[in-house]
Amino acid sequence: MGEWLVELRGHVFDLRDLADLFTTPDLLVVQEGEEFRLKSTAFDALASEDDVYAKAKALMPSLNGIASVYVTGYRNVGMSGGIISIDAGGTRKRYIYEAVTEEIRLKASVDVAGGVAVARGPTEADAAIKAALNKEKEVVSRALQFFSLEKNWVNLYKVLDAIEEDMGSADPVTKKGWVSASEIDRFTGTANNHNAAKGNARHGYVSKRPMKKKPMTLAEAEQLIRTLLTQWFKSTK
After folding, report:
1. What single DSSP character describes residue 113?
2. pLDDT per position as a tens digit, 204-229
3. Of 157, 132, 135, nearest to 144 (Cα)?
4. Which pairs from 143-150 meet CB under 8 Å and 24+ separation?
C-alpha cells in the first residue's frame, strides 16, 4: 500500500513548530532536507492526488488552529501546491498544483528524493487533531478554523460559540473550572460593547448599559479562548 505527502510552505520557524507538535500517524509534519511535508492517515484510503489535495486543504485550518493554540506568535503555513505519491515499491511521483484564477493545473514528474517519517509523541496537539478528524465532532474543526483566523473579537467569539454549542452552554465550562464565570462575562461584555472593544466589537451599536467590570484587552481575550480550547480538547474524544 502506498502513501501520500503534501508539501507545505511557510516560515521555517513555524514549520519546525508543526513538526514538533504533530507526532503520530494521524498527522505528521515531516522534514525532508529543507522541505516540510504533511502526512496523515486521513490520506491512506484516498485513490487520487486530487482527493489528497482536497483533503489536505480541508485539514489546514485545523492544523493552523491547533498550532495557534499551543505556540504563541505562530503564523499560519499553507500548501505549496505539491503532492507526492509513494507506491509500495518506494517509487515517488510528484504532482504540482498551480492556482490560476479559479482553475487548477496539474503536472506530474517522477523520482523525488525523500526522507523517513518517524512517529513520536503523543502530544497535546496530537490529541487535538484526533478530535478534529472525528467526523462526529465537526464542531471541533469549526472552532479551530475560527481560531486559525485573525485574533479579533468576532473570530474569538465564534470559537466560544462553538465550544458552548458542544458543551450545551457556558455553565459546564465554568463548573469544570476551565475559566471563571467572571472572565467569561468580561469577555462577552467587552466583545459586545463598541466602546469597550475600541470600535472593533461584534456589533455596530453602542451599548446603553455601562460595563460593570473592567473591559478585557484583546490579548487577554485571545489567552482566555486559548485556555478554553486546551481544556476542551482534553475532554473531547
Report:
1. -
2. 777 767 676 788 999 999 999 999 99
3. 132
4. 143/65, 143/229, 143/232, 144/61, 144/62, 144/64, 144/65, 144/66, 145/61, 145/62, 145/65, 146/65, 147/65, 147/68, 147/69, 147/225, 147/229, 148/60, 148/61, 148/62, 148/64, 148/65, 148/68, 148/76
What pTM was estimated for this model as a whole? 0.83
Number of Cβ within a 10 Å radius of residue 137: 16
Dmax over CA atoms of the chain, in Å, equals: 70
- Sequence length of the chain is 237
**61 Rama class: left (phi>0) / alpha (psi -120 to 50) / beta:** alpha
- Tell me the C-alpha to C-alpha distance, in Å, between residue 236 and each of 32, 143, 147, 163, 189: 33, 13, 17, 11, 27
Q: State the cell numbers at 69.
A: 493554540
Q: Is the peptide bond before 61 cis (omega within 30 degrees of 0)?
A: no
- 116-174 tens-digit pLDDT: 444 455 889 999 999 898 888 899 999 999 999 999 999 999 999 999 999 999 899 99
DSSP state of 211: P
Distance CA 37, CA 82 (A): 9
CA proximity to 95, closest of 107, 104, 86, 87: 107
